[in-house]
Amino acid sequence: MSVFKYEKDADGIVTITMDMSGPVNAMNEEYRSAMAETVDRLEREQGLTGVVFASAKKVFFAGGDLNELLAAEKGNEAGFMDMLRITKHNLRRLEKLPVPVVAAINGAALGGGFEICLCCNHRIAWDDKSVQLGLPEVSLGLLPGGGGVVRMVNLLGLEKALPYLLEGRKVAPAAALAEGMIHETTATAEELVPRAKAWILANRSDEEAAVQPWDRKGFRVPGGNASSPKLAQLIMGAPAMLRQKTRGLLPAPEKILDCAVEACRLDFDSALEVESRGLTYLAVTPQAKNMISTFFFGMNKVNGGASRPRDIAPYTTKKVGVLGAGMMGQGIAYVSAMAGIEVVLKDISVEAAEKGKAYSVKLLDKRVARGRMTEAQKNEVLKLIKPTATDADLQGCDLIIEAVFENMELKHKITKATEGRLAENGVWGSNTSTLPITQLAEASARQENFIGIHFFSPVDKMPLVEIICGEKTSDETLARAFDYTRQIRKTPIVVNDSMGFFTSRTFGTYLDEGVRLLNEGVHPVQIDSLGKAIGMPVGPLAVYDEVSLELSRKAQEAWKEMGVLDKWGDGSVVRSVIDTMVVEHGRGGRHHGGGFYEYSEDGSKAIWPPLFDLYYKPGTQVSEQDIKDRLLFRPVIESLKCLETQVLRSVADGNIGSIMGIGAPVWTGGYIQFVNTYGAQRFVERCRELEQVYGERFQPPKIALDHAASGELFR
Length: 715
What we know:
The chain has 715 residues and is α/β, with parallel strands linked by helices. The protein folds into three domains: 4-284, 2-enoyl-CoA Hydratase, Chain A, domain 1, CATH 3.90.226; 319-498, Rossmann fold (3-Layer(aba) Sandwich), CATH 3.40.50.720; 504-710, Orthogonal Bundle (N-(1-d-carboxylethyl)-l-norvaline Dehydrogenase, domain 2). The chain is globular, with a radius of gyration of 28 Å. The two termini are 36 Å apart.
């Protein structure tokens, strides 16, 4: 009972203050023991009039113990089911107490935390931005297994509950109140317990106050049960819509939908058992293992600063200069100003710089229109952005980010011309996607203060920043770049210098393999369809059009001038295709009038017809499985090479970077994590099969061979 403080007042109300031994309250063995003992005592308590559940932590309750979930293994499903039954049995006992139970929610209550709240007859939350409510388990490949699916459906009805369950939607207290997920809010955290006790005393004569809606005689699920005409139509169409969204690669949403529908068909306790079976099935899937490993443990490592030098004090950037007001520069200016940083946005003319600032105006106007910002707040952000064509305005910047075209000579020229405007010990950052930082830094008078800060487009939406250290980049410079990235609310990964770094180099292999398949005669529609079938957002040919074939051709020319003919090995096949498309046929990509696709004014697109004559060879024998594996294994192999050669500093950086930066399939948990659940030995064997048929680019890296031999996971 030491972790659940038990206090009974003169009115017979018991307050349970959860204060578990870890940093947060979580559903683990300690919780199960404490909750069982607490309910035992409450059931024996004489003169009990009500119960209040509160928390001594800043977070009300964090949810399930993901280490336990990660440890769940096939073959031990019965043991896992028993654990779920114990958890649910105690929560069911809690909500069947003969007195009202109130949740006093002082902080985030997500997952298992909100499931505890749902077991309470009355829910009061502090109306503060730190408080979030919801069931986000789907984002980790799981479902709410403590009764969350069943109770949400019984509380809100199937149609209203599904977005919270299938999308893992998290809401603030005001929104939860409007939706009927909670009953009250308070202005301060200190009011919660007194308000909870007052509600108990005001309702002690009302017998129904202690009975959950679903336990009352004659209860009906809001919106109807599964046989109602309106829901029957929803239930018939939902699986097809869900399959279209997940492509059959994510089992959690499908299992959640099954459990939610059963909650509309079965009695309450039977539906809880179905829910337990659903979580037991999901907990042992590779998708759940991958998503938990990366989206929770890996993300915590990355955002927690595992790649940041530890002995350097935190730094706050106050004034940033952005050179180049084009697509990237204008986005960098916007996210910096949104973080309260003074921005100097410089271009070759004031008109060009003003045009760049107009991008921020457009985005801020949208926020105002949606009620997410006031007009006054918008103006405060815009005041922070100064468009200019004058170098002198950069004076005193503690960070300058150059965001001009990928040309070494141009970047060197700009560095030499404006680096002197930095404040003392200021940092110079280059927003480059491919050019080596060490070479770019050669133009700098202070190479130790030079670093790569690679943003992704569109900057305002993409959550990742790839920080690249050159050979002479100091730890202090890295720390400052890392802190700036967190200041603008982005997730930073840190890599070492190389051609293409990690993200561009790895992403390039997906495009490369798509073009190779085209050159071999595979139908272009099949190539892109199977790219999406493995979970990529878009097929490789369609992506190449967006990235720009013309840009790729120019980059290849630049690499040739630098003495680097190809970034990833023998790319003569790909260069030939690009030259044919761009030079011979003027197909430079979507923004150059079309590339592999032609684009209509209504936004639709179709394969450019002459592409079939140029490359498609009917009867080409490449199996669908080989195509899918080739498109998936190329970036996985490249990621492993980056780890092996220490371009990647950590496995977590590689996994987060591949998911958030280049759209690796979510179900993999990132390209390196994929190998863990696929199996290193099996991966090596499949690489060798592909190598034998398609070439040495599929040769398994030594690091994969080593892990296959040792059985060690990539951590």
